[in-house]
Amino acid sequence: MPIKRAALYVRVSTPEQSVDTQLLDLRQMAAQRGYVVVHEYADRISGAKAKRPGLDQLMADARRRRFDVVVVWAFDRMARSVRHFLEVLDELNYLNIEFVSFRESIDTGGPLGRAMVVIVGAIAELERNLIVERVKAGMRRAKLEGRQIGRAPLQVDRCQVVHDRQSRMSLTQVARKHGISRASVCRIVKELGAGDAPVGIAGTGFDHVPAAACENEARS
Fold first, then answer.
1. pLDDT at position 214, please?
2. DSSP letter string over 136-159?
3. What is the fold, at CATH topology level, of the domain defined by 5-109?
4. Catalytic residue among 13, 46, 105, 184
5. How far is 147 from 13, CA to CA, in rounded Å?
6. Inter-CA distances, 168 with 11, 112, 176, 177, 186, Å
7. For FRET with 159, which of 46, 52, 138, 220 sits at 20 to 30 Å CA-CA?
8. What are the angstrom distances between the C-alpha of 63 and each of 57, 60, 67, 80, 94?
9. End-to-end CA distance of the chain
Protein backbone atom coordinates (compact mmCIF):
# COMPACT_ATOMS: atom_id res chain seq x y z
CA MET A 1 0.00 0.00 0.00
CA PRO A 2 1.47 3.40 -0.96
CA ILE A 3 2.25 5.78 1.88
CA LYS A 4 -0.26 8.61 2.07
CA ARG A 5 0.85 12.23 2.25
CA ALA A 6 -1.01 14.11 4.98
CA ALA A 7 -1.79 17.77 5.56
CA LEU A 8 -2.60 18.81 9.13
CA TYR A 9 -4.97 21.72 9.83
CA VAL A 10 -5.46 23.38 13.21
CA ARG A 11 -7.22 26.53 14.34
CA VAL A 12 -7.63 28.58 17.51
CA SER A 13 -9.91 31.57 17.94
CA THR A 14 -7.44 34.22 19.11
CA PRO A 15 -3.74 35.01 18.52
CA GLU A 16 -3.06 34.47 22.23
CA GLN A 17 -4.09 30.81 22.09
CA SER A 18 -1.67 28.04 21.15
CA VAL A 19 -2.11 25.42 18.44
CA ASP A 20 0.54 23.13 19.96
CA THR A 21 -1.91 20.78 21.68
CA GLN A 22 -3.91 20.21 18.50
CA LEU A 23 -0.76 19.67 16.45
CA LEU A 24 0.57 17.12 18.95
CA ASP A 25 -2.62 15.06 18.69
CA LEU A 26 -2.65 15.20 14.89
CA ARG A 27 1.03 14.28 14.56
CA GLN A 28 0.48 11.24 16.76
CA MET A 29 -2.58 10.18 14.74
CA ALA A 30 -0.67 10.59 11.48
CA ALA A 31 2.20 8.48 12.80
CA GLN A 32 -0.18 5.74 13.98
CA ARG A 33 -1.82 5.56 10.54
CA GLY A 34 1.48 5.59 8.69
CA TYR A 35 0.93 8.99 7.07
CA VAL A 36 3.81 11.21 6.01
CA VAL A 37 3.06 14.78 7.10
CA VAL A 38 4.02 17.07 4.22
CA HIS A 39 2.64 20.32 5.61
CA GLU A 40 0.96 21.84 8.66
CA TYR A 41 -1.56 24.66 8.26
CA ALA A 42 -2.73 26.87 11.12
CA ASP A 43 -5.13 29.76 11.65
CA ARG A 44 -5.47 32.02 14.67
CA ILE A 45 -8.83 33.55 13.92
CA SER A 46 -12.52 33.17 14.77
CA GLY A 47 -14.31 30.33 13.04
CA ALA A 48 -17.02 32.73 11.86
CA LYS A 49 -14.57 34.66 9.68
CA ALA A 50 -14.89 33.99 5.95
CA LYS A 51 -11.22 34.56 5.16
CA ARG A 52 -8.74 32.22 6.82
CA PRO A 53 -5.21 32.25 5.34
CA GLY A 54 -4.28 28.79 6.58
CA LEU A 55 -7.40 27.09 5.28
CA ASP A 56 -7.27 29.02 2.01
CA GLN A 57 -3.68 27.87 1.47
CA LEU A 58 -4.61 24.29 2.34
CA MET A 59 -7.36 24.25 -0.29
CA ALA A 60 -5.04 25.82 -2.86
CA ASP A 61 -2.45 23.11 -2.23
CA ALA A 62 -5.17 20.45 -2.37
CA ARG A 63 -6.00 21.56 -5.91
CA ARG A 64 -2.32 21.08 -6.75
CA ARG A 65 -2.56 17.50 -5.42
CA ARG A 66 0.18 18.08 -2.84
CA PHE A 67 -1.29 15.59 -0.32
CA ASP A 68 -3.66 12.64 -0.15
CA VAL A 69 -5.44 13.20 3.17
CA VAL A 70 -6.41 16.15 5.34
CA VAL A 71 -6.31 15.63 9.11
CA VAL A 72 -8.09 18.11 11.40
CA TRP A 73 -8.51 18.22 15.17
CA ALA A 74 -12.31 18.67 15.02
CA PHE A 75 -15.08 19.53 12.55
CA ASP A 76 -15.66 22.98 14.01
CA ARG A 77 -11.97 23.82 13.60
CA MET A 78 -12.31 23.33 9.84
CA ALA A 79 -15.38 25.24 8.69
CA ARG A 80 -17.61 28.11 9.83
CA SER A 81 -20.97 26.39 9.06
CA VAL A 82 -22.44 23.10 7.91
CA ARG A 83 -22.81 24.48 4.40
CA HIS A 84 -19.17 25.57 4.28
CA PHE A 85 -18.11 22.27 5.80
CA LEU A 86 -19.94 20.28 3.13
CA GLU A 87 -18.49 22.50 0.40
CA VAL A 88 -14.99 21.73 1.66
CA LEU A 89 -15.75 18.00 1.86
CA ASP A 90 -17.25 17.98 -1.63
CA GLU A 91 -14.18 19.63 -3.10
CA LEU A 92 -11.81 17.29 -1.25
CA ASN A 93 -13.88 14.32 -2.43
CA TYR A 94 -13.73 15.60 -6.01
CA LEU A 95 -9.95 15.81 -5.67
CA ASN A 96 -9.84 12.25 -4.21
CA ILE A 97 -8.45 13.57 -0.92
CA GLU A 98 -9.61 11.89 2.27
CA PHE A 99 -10.75 13.82 5.32
CA VAL A 100 -9.99 12.65 8.87
CA SER A 101 -11.14 14.23 12.15
CA PHE A 102 -9.28 13.45 15.37
CA ARG A 103 -11.95 14.35 17.94
CA GLU A 104 -14.85 12.66 16.14
CA SER A 105 -12.70 9.66 15.05
CA ILE A 106 -14.26 9.80 11.59
CA ASP A 107 -12.82 9.71 8.09
CA THR A 108 -14.37 9.85 4.65
CA GLY A 109 -12.70 6.70 3.39
CA GLY A 110 -16.12 5.03 3.07
CA PRO A 111 -19.84 5.88 2.76
CA LEU A 112 -20.51 5.42 6.47
CA GLY A 113 -17.78 7.88 7.35
CA ARG A 114 -19.18 10.51 4.99
CA ALA A 115 -22.70 10.06 6.39
CA MET A 116 -21.42 10.50 9.93
CA VAL A 117 -19.52 13.63 8.91
CA VAL A 118 -22.74 15.28 7.70
CA ILE A 119 -24.67 14.30 10.84
CA VAL A 120 -22.00 15.40 13.32
CA GLY A 121 -21.43 18.63 11.40
CA ALA A 122 -25.13 19.49 11.65
CA ILE A 123 -25.12 18.77 15.38
CA ALA A 124 -22.05 20.98 15.87
CA GLU A 125 -23.76 23.92 14.14
CA LEU A 126 -26.94 23.37 16.16
CA GLU A 127 -24.93 23.45 19.38
CA ARG A 128 -23.25 26.69 18.36
CA ASN A 129 -26.60 28.30 17.45
CA LEU A 130 -28.06 27.25 20.81
CA ILE A 131 -25.14 28.91 22.62
CA VAL A 132 -25.71 32.14 20.67
CA GLU A 133 -29.42 32.08 21.49
CA ARG A 134 -28.72 31.53 25.20
CA VAL A 135 -26.37 34.52 25.23
CA LYS A 136 -28.94 36.72 23.48
CA ALA A 137 -31.68 35.56 25.87
CA GLY A 138 -29.47 36.40 28.84
CA MET A 139 -28.82 39.89 27.47
CA ARG A 140 -32.55 40.48 26.91
CA ARG A 141 -33.33 39.37 30.46
CA ALA A 142 -30.61 41.64 31.89
CA LYS A 143 -32.00 44.58 29.92
CA LEU A 144 -35.54 43.93 31.17
CA GLU A 145 -34.24 43.79 34.74
CA GLY A 146 -32.53 47.12 34.25
CA ARG A 147 -29.00 45.77 34.50
CA GLN A 148 -26.14 47.41 32.63
CA ILE A 149 -24.96 45.53 29.53
CA GLY A 150 -21.45 46.33 28.41
CA ARG A 151 -19.32 49.25 29.52
CA ALA A 152 -20.94 51.64 31.98
CA PRO A 153 -21.27 55.25 30.75
CA LEU A 154 -18.61 57.70 31.94
CA GLN A 155 -19.64 59.71 35.00
CA VAL A 156 -17.90 62.93 34.03
CA ASP A 157 -18.74 66.56 33.30
CA ARG A 158 -18.35 66.45 29.53
CA CYS A 159 -18.64 70.19 29.01
CA GLN A 160 -15.90 70.77 31.56
CA VAL A 161 -13.69 68.21 29.80
CA VAL A 162 -14.08 70.11 26.53
CA HIS A 163 -13.55 73.44 28.31
CA ASP A 164 -10.34 72.20 29.91
CA ARG A 165 -9.08 70.74 26.66
CA GLN A 166 -9.71 73.96 24.76
CA SER A 167 -8.05 76.01 27.46
CA ARG A 168 -4.82 74.46 26.17
CA MET A 169 -4.52 71.79 28.83
CA SER A 170 -2.80 68.72 27.42
CA LEU A 171 -4.60 65.40 26.93
CA THR A 172 -2.74 63.92 29.86
CA GLN A 173 -3.61 66.84 32.14
CA VAL A 174 -7.31 66.69 31.25
CA ALA A 175 -7.40 62.90 31.62
CA ARG A 176 -5.77 63.03 35.06
CA LYS A 177 -8.03 65.83 36.26
CA HIS A 178 -11.22 63.94 35.40
CA GLY A 179 -9.94 60.42 36.05
CA ILE A 180 -10.50 59.16 32.51
CA SER A 181 -8.29 57.98 29.66
CA ARG A 182 -6.76 60.17 26.97
CA ALA A 183 -8.87 58.31 24.39
CA SER A 184 -12.01 59.20 26.36
CA VAL A 185 -11.03 62.86 26.31
CA CYS A 186 -10.73 62.74 22.50
CA ARG A 187 -14.04 60.93 22.18
CA ILE A 188 -15.87 63.49 24.32
CA VAL A 189 -14.36 66.38 22.35
CA LYS A 190 -15.59 64.77 19.13
CA GLU A 191 -19.05 63.92 20.47
CA LEU A 192 -19.68 67.49 21.57
CA GLY A 193 -18.48 68.85 18.24
CA ALA A 194 -15.75 70.86 19.87
CA GLY A 195 -13.87 71.00 16.59
CA ASP A 196 -16.69 73.08 15.11
CA ALA A 197 -17.92 75.06 18.10
CA PRO A 198 -15.25 76.76 20.21
CA VAL A 199 -15.63 77.10 23.92
CA GLY A 200 -14.71 80.69 24.68
CA ILE A 201 -12.46 81.50 27.59
CA ALA A 202 -12.88 85.12 28.53
CA GLY A 203 -9.70 87.20 28.54
CA THR A 204 -7.39 84.47 27.27
CA GLY A 205 -7.62 84.94 23.52
CA PHE A 206 -7.47 81.15 23.02
CA ASP A 207 -9.34 79.69 20.06
CA HIS A 208 -10.89 76.22 20.00
CA VAL A 209 -8.75 73.10 19.57
CA PRO A 210 -9.72 71.02 16.48
CA ALA A 211 -10.58 67.37 17.12
CA ALA A 212 -7.87 66.35 14.65
CA ALA A 213 -5.27 67.90 16.91
CA CYS A 214 -6.62 65.78 19.74
CA GLU A 215 -6.12 62.62 17.68
CA ASN A 216 -2.57 63.58 16.76
CA GLU A 217 -1.64 64.18 20.36
CA ALA A 218 -3.28 60.93 21.45
CA ARG A 219 -0.98 59.01 19.10
CA SER A 220 2.15 60.69 20.43
1. 55
2. HHHHHHHHHTT---SSPPP-S-HH
3. Rossmann fold (3.40.50)
4. 13
5. 29
6. 49, 73, 15, 14, 14
7. 220
8. 10, 5, 9, 21, 10
9. 64
Which sequence spans correspond to the domains of the chain?
Answer: 5-109, 158-219
Non-local (6+) Cβ contacts of 53 within 8 A are: 43
Starting at the edge strand found earlier in the chain, the sheet holding 36-44 runs 36-44, 5-12, 69-72, 98-101, 106-107
Q: Is 82:121 a contact under the CB 8 Å cutoff?
A: yes
Question: Counting every residue, how long is the chain?
Answer: 220
Query: Residue ranges of the alpha helices (H) in 64-110?
Result: 75-78, 82-94
pTM (2 d.p.): 0.53
CA 74 to chain centre: 18
Query: Looking at residue 71, what is its pLDDT?
Result: 95
Pairing status of strand 69-72 against strand 106-107: unpaired
Per-position pLDDT tens, the chain of length 220: 689 999 999 998 888 888 999 999 999 999 999 999 999 999 988 756 667 899 999 999 999 999 999 999 988 888 777 778 878 887 888 899 999 999 888 888 777 777 776 776 677 778 778 888 888 888 888 888 877 666 666 778 888 888 888 888 888 888 898 888 888 888 888 887 655 444 443 333 334 445 455 555 555 5
**13 belongs to the catalytic site:** yes
Rounded distance, CA 60 to CA 55, Å?
9
Q: Write the single-letter amino acid at 18.
A: S
Q: Which helix (H) or strand (E) holds 37?
A: strand 36-44
